[in-house]
Amino acid sequence: MKLSVFMKRKNSLFVANRLKTVLSFMVVNAVLLAVNQFSVVELYGTVETSFASWSSYTNFHNKKIKSDVIYVMKEEHEEQTKSISYDYRLSKAKGGEYIAIGQSESIPIKYNSVFYLDEQCGLIFSNLVEMTTRNVALRCLY
Predict the structure, then answer these.
(1) CA atoms within 13 A on the CB side of 117
(2) Which of 57, 68, 70, 98 could form a disulfide with 93 if both were Cys (CB 3.0 to 4.6 A apart)?
(3) Around 61, how many Cα atoms within 13 Å sit in the side-chain half-sphere?
(4) Could you tell me which residues are beta bridge partners of residue 68?
(5) Torsion-angle region of 63 (φ positive above 0: left; ψ -120 to 50: alpha; else: beta)
(6) How high does pLDDT run on average in the chain?
(7) 111 within 8 A of 99, measured Cβ to Cβ
(8) Would you say 103 and 87 are in contact if contact means Cβ atoms under 8 Å apart?
(9) Per-residue pLDDT for 103 more than 90?
(10) How many CA atoms lie within 13 A of 22 on its CB side?
């Protein structure tokens, strides 16, 4: 008997506050949608070897990946600098791997493996077959 009275009282409170409850759910969903639409992840990193060094800045927003890379090739008494920009769209992601598709003529599809060093940084290899210093990027949360 007491349980039935308790349920009726609880149900009547919900009916009386139904509009407030529905409005609060709508506001929470709108806030979550806005946060999702305007959130951007920025990553930055530099890799140095004996033959070259390269720095990359990556901006990730709504499945769009934009990377700017600056290469510095070290030769005997001279350095050559090259700047490249990549625009990709995230296609598939699973665990520490993802496939990115872009309009680049040199690399239209990139398969990347990510090895996380800690909560901030990861090593990204841009080749499935060969994981060497020639195709690695260090990227950390900016």
Answers:
(1) 11
(2) 98
(3) 12
(4) 57, 85
(5) left
(6) 80
(7) yes
(8) yes
(9) no
(10) 6
Exposed/middle/buried for 8, CB within 10 Å: 0-12, 13-18, 19+?
exposed
By CB neighbour count within 10 A (0-12 exposed, 13-18 middle, 19+ buried), where does 54 fall?
Answer: buried
Q: How confident is the model at residue 10 (pLDDT cuts 50, 70, 90)?
A: low
Strand boundaries in the chain, DSSP class E: 41-48, 52-61, 64-74, 79-94, 97-102, 109-116, 121-125, 136-141
Cβ-in-10-Å burial (0-12, 13-18, 19+) of 85 comes to: exposed
CA 57 → CA 30, 102, 140, distances in Å?
Answer: 31, 17, 9
Per-residue confidence (pLDDT) for residue 105, from 0 to 100: 58
**Least trusted range by pLDDT, from 3-7, 26-30, 117-121:** 3-7
Query: So what's the pLDDT on residue 29?
Result: 93
How many angstroms separate the CA atoms of 115 and 132, rounded? Answer: 13
Which residue in this structure is represented by tokens 């060093």? Answer: 117
Question: Using CA atoms, how far apart are residues 57 and 39, in angstroms rounded to an integer?
Answer: 17
